[in-house]
Amino acid sequence: MTKSLQRRNFVTVLLMAMLPAAIACAQPLPAGLHGSSGNEQDYARVTVFGIEAKGSKFVYVFDRSGSMDGAPLAAAKKQLLVSLQPLGETQQFDILFFNHRVVVFDGGSGQKRAMFATDRNKQLAAEFVQRIAADGGTDRTLALRTALKLQPDVIFFLSDEDKPMPAKELEEIAKANDRVGAQICTIEFGKGAQQAGVSSMAELAQANNGKHVYVDVTKLSK
């Protein structure tokens, strides 16, 4: 065998050995994860009312309308603040409370953008959350549109099902999310046992790669 042929054979073997690693590196990130490096340490696992989701940017969209007054809002606040604890300084979060309007946590910066989960920002978030009171009506679509503009990996959307979201609004959110790819996980508050059939909150999760949980608010305590 000539030296030239030996070199060609060596290069062929080397390229074949490198091929599996190259393919692995080319695999896309899981749906909803927008991180550039794809390193496992860039992501966190967060749980809200038993729903676990993985990502690097989380947005909490919580109902604060009049029907959430008392134990429901108190329990929602507690779950939200506990769920921030696993986040490290490389992850980001934002908090939106809504009724007929949307109030966005901005850490005092005046800018609507996700915050890095530093100890300071977590403390500011706790102070913001504690100031929230329940009142007013409900505009879920406005809140979700606002959240999607932040381009998160995961949205935790908590609301009661006093008035189901119309199919047109569900379609609008799913279409807007096509450009973002967020996983929308829904926490549905209700009184008593879960009703038969699929609620609009469950449909919202199903249409956006998310999970859904029902919470009986009569079993909550302040």
Description:
With 222 residues, this protein is an alpha/beta fold. It has one domain (40-219): von Willebrand factor, type A domain (Rossmann fold). Helices cover 36% and strands 22% of the residues. The strands form two sheets. Strands 3, 4, 5, 6, 7, 8 and 9 form a seven-stranded mixed beta sheet that branches. It has a two-stranded antiparallel ribbon with strand order 1-2. Strand 4 and strand 5 (102-104) form a beta hairpin. The model is unreliable at 10-31 (pLDDT under 50).
Short recap of the structure:
This protein has 222 residues and is an alpha/beta fold. It has helices spanning 3-26, 71-83, 119-131, 140-148, 167-178, 200-207, and strands at residues 44-48, 51-55, 57-63, 92-98, 102-104, 115-116, 154-160, 183-190, 212-216.
